[in-house]
Automatic annotation (TrEMBL):
Single Gene Ontology BP annotation: transmembrane transport
ABC transmembrane type-1 domain mapped to chain residues: 89-307
Annotated compartments: Cell membrane
Protein's UniProt name: Carbohydrate ABC transporter membrane protein 1, CUT1 family (TC 3.A.1.1.-)
Length: 320
């Protein structure tokens, strides 16, 4: 009897799915290109992760290359060159962590400021100006940073010399101690405006009646922000924070590759640039580079799962 009931439920569920598909087939057709893109460019390349468990030869191919198990991971984590891997791991974590501490609150604060501006034309003009850097390529961003930090002609050095902080201009980009700050600040300038869109949209969804009730109770603008605006966008902040935590080991390599030099590897070399040098230049060790990518992905997955679990227990808001 139980099996018959389960079969009936399965049949009903299948029929409901077919009915829903027929009723909303236009939506699924629109969704199809995205699904195909994910299958081709996100899931199909995962097959290449097998390389990390093999002594991969470009001439033999993936299938014919001999299986070596976890040897590549042992070499990566504990082998002769593991010092460079752990240095890159540390730099990636620190750059991303500092970016999280200083960069994550910036778009939230900016969105709250936009929400307080009642003049629509003025607000849209400022928003447009702050969104623009997001659409500038990393090559141009790196060029601007290099130009601004030139020892003799860079505006930063000129200002620091004029106010008496420096006696003469210095080349910041060859100083390892300045690289992380340069990277984080340039990233904040580029992305803060665009990242504020999500939080401003969440603020737009808060009922005006809540603000009116707060005014009736005598709340100031600051109190309205603290007691209405921030709690209203708290779920959005938590979701975006979980996603950001999952990307702690995914620092974009383009700007780093354009700005760093061998003299700044100490603080500038990250996992993505390390993998780039390991797999595409020098020794071209594809197996070891793929093992580094796989390890990076596993750490990212663990971080997302952990952050999501903590968030669900603390705030009852989570990705799943």
């Amino acid at each position: 009897m139980k099996k018959d009931k389960q079969k009936q439920k399965t049949k009903l569920g299948f029929k409901d799915a077919i009915s829903a598909l027929k009723a909303d087939w236009q939506i699924y057709v629109l969704l199809l290109p995205l699904v195909i893109w994910f299958l081709l460019f996100m899931y199909k390349p995962m097959y290449g992760l097998i390389i990390s468990f093999k002594d991969y030869s470009l001439f033999k191919g993936i299938e014919a290359s001999p299986w070596v198990g976890l040897d590549n991971f042992k070499e990566l984590l504990f082998g002769a060159g593991s010092t460079y891997f752990w240095r890159a791991f540390k730099n990636t974590f620190l750059i991303s962590f500092y970016g999280l501490i200083f960069g994550f609150p910036a778009p939230i604060i900016l969105a709250l400021m936009f929400n307080e501006v009642k003049d629509g034309i003025y607000r849209r003009g400022i928003q447009t100006l702050l969104y623009l850097p997001h659409f500038i390529s990393e090559v141009i961003i790196a060029g601007i940073v290099i130009a601004f930090l030139q020892p003799q002609t860079g505006i930063i050095n000129i200002l620091l010399v004029k106010v008496g902080i420096l006696e003469q201009g210095i080349y910041f980009l060859v100083k390892p101690e300045y690289f992380r700050s340069i990277y984080i600040l340039s990233g904040m300038w580029k992305e803060t405006g665009f990242a504020s869109i999500v939080f401003f949209a969440a603020l737009s969804g808060i009922s005006p009646a809540l603000y009116e009730a707060a005014k009736v109770d005598g709340a100031t603008r600051i109190q309205q922000m603290l007691n209405v605006s921030i709690p209203g966008i708290a779920p959005t902040i938590i979701i975006m924070l979980i996603i950001r935590i999952g990307q702690l080991l995914s620092v974009g390599y383009e700007r780093v590759l354009l700005l760093y030099q061998p003299v700044t590897y100490e603080t500038a070399d990250i996992l993505n640039t390390y993998i780039y040098r390991l797999g595409l230049t020098g020794s071209t060790d594809f197996s070891l580079a793929t093992a580094a990518v796989f390890f990076n992905a596993i750490i990212g997955f663990v971080l997302v799962r952990t952050a999501n679990s903590i968030s669900r227990k603390v705030s009852e808001t989570a990705l799943w």
